[in-house]
Amino acid sequence: MNQLAKQVNNGAIITTLLVGLIACQPIDQANTDLTHEDKNFPGKGVRIRSAHSTWIEEKFQTEIVNLGLEELGYQVEPPQEIDYPPMYLAIANGDLDYTPTHGKRAHAQFFENSGGLEKLERVGVLIPNTIGGYQIDKKTADQYKITNLEQLKKPEIAKLFDSDGNGKANLIGCNPGWGCELIIEHHLDAYDLRDTVEHNKGEYIALMADTISRYEQGESVLYFVFDPHWLASVLKVEEDASWLEVPFTSLPKEQGKVTEKDTSVDGKNLGFAVADYQIVANKQFLAANPVAKRWFELVKIPLEDVSAESLRIKDGENKPEDIRRHAQEWVEKNQELFDSWVEEAKKVGDTKSG
Questions:
Q1: Of 1, 53, 89, 148, which is most buried, counting CB atoms within 10 Å of its CB?
Q2: What is the structure's pLDDT at 201?
Q3: What's the CATH code of the domain at 118?
Q4: pTM above 0.90, yes or no
């Protein structure tokens, strides 16, 4: 049994424990008897349960989506924090209804191993053009002319980023089980880097806090970065950090056919496919709730707004009530557009009740 399969099997057990409390009551999946007075609230009487990962920044987009569902009359439960792959299993099993944190390629294995298109459905484009890749500090990049991840095959280059004294470069990576962790592990094999590079896994925010501290002390640093995230505002490209290209495009087979064009940004092959964040929902839930599905199709959040929120969280406004308030402020700043999405979704309810 491979590592991913073990994670999925273990995830099924974890999911049962995590969502047991919210799955113990029968859920009204749809409101099929709308009165004339209910037309402005087509979701009335339906409870919706959302989830995001333990990456707290994802709460922002979840709250924005939920604010729209509330406007449509749905009874929205507070978002659950559940990591991958248990989150996908919970949605597929009907213990949760949706997540707004799906990367089609990065999460392809979680999606397929949780029932795929038979139980789950991707909806809309919530956050367009997210990117990921590898960066090092600009001082080291310029001094040693390092531009490509493949150069770390040289022991003398790898040792520049050795923070634990074992001679290998310490690549600051992702939480175990995340999509980026699977891709980094694939890259270490595809680019023949196992002998000179080790992947430091763990709580990403804690790992990056240590990385930034080492950078501020003048040490060389090597890390995975994802945008949108506050890290791009702290270690700025061309000022503090430099992208590393990859020698060629190679991603896990579950991600399907991916070309160099798919993984390139501004002429640089970063190795990770540029991707949209989408909503993934339980297929039966969507069929029973076309108004919610239409809302999912419409709502969109610009990448720069998510990055700005990430920085606010990093600067201390990181409590659930803070992030909920930030989401409400985002709605107020985009009120006309937000209201137009709500009214468009209501039209589905008008058709249904008519």
A1: 89
A2: 95
A3: 3.40.190.10
A4: no
Determine which helix (DSSP H) or strand (DSSP E) holds 269, and give its type and residue range: strand 268-269
29 CB-contact burial (10 Å; exposed 0-12 / middle 13-18 / buried 19+): middle
Where is 327: in which H helix or E strand?
Answer: helix 320-333
| pLDDT band, residue 255 (cuts 50/70/90) | confident
CA–CA distance from 229 to each of 17, 140, 153, 293, 295 (Å)? 30, 23, 29, 27, 25
CA distance 79 to 61: 11
Question: Are 310 and 229 in the same domain?
Answer: no
Question: Do residues 134 and 265 both lie within one domain?
Answer: yes
Same domain as 95, residue 141: no
Residue 86 shares a structural domain with residue 134: no
Residue 191: CB partners within 8 Å, gap ≥ 6? 149, 150, 153, 246, 247, 250
The residue with tokens 């092959």 is 269
Domain boundary among 217, 235, 269: 269
- Are β-strands 197-200 and 222-227 bridged in parallel, bridged antiparallel, or unpaired? unpaired
CA-to-CA distance for 71 and 148, rounded, in angstroms? Answer: 49
Count Cβ atoms below 10 Å from residue 264 Cβ, excluding itself. Answer: 17
As a residue count, the chain comes to 354
pLDDT tens, residue by residue, 179-219: 899 999 999 999 999 999 999 999 888 899 899 999 999 99
160 and 180 in a single domain? The answer is yes
Question: On the CB side of 141, how many CA atoms lie within 13 Å of its CA?
Answer: 19
Share above pLDDT 70 across residues of the chain, in percent, rounded to a whole number: 88
Residue type, 231: L
Q: Which two tokens stand for residue 246?
A: 């990859």
- Report the CATH number that the domain containing residue 178 is assigned in CATH: 3.40.190.100
**CA dihedral over 80, 100, 8, 193, signed as positive or negative:** negative
CA distance linking residue 32 with residue 293, whole number of Å: 15
Residue ending a domain, among 242, 269, 296, is 269
Which structure tokens are listed for 116? 């795929």
Strand bridging mode 222-227 / 51-52: unpaired
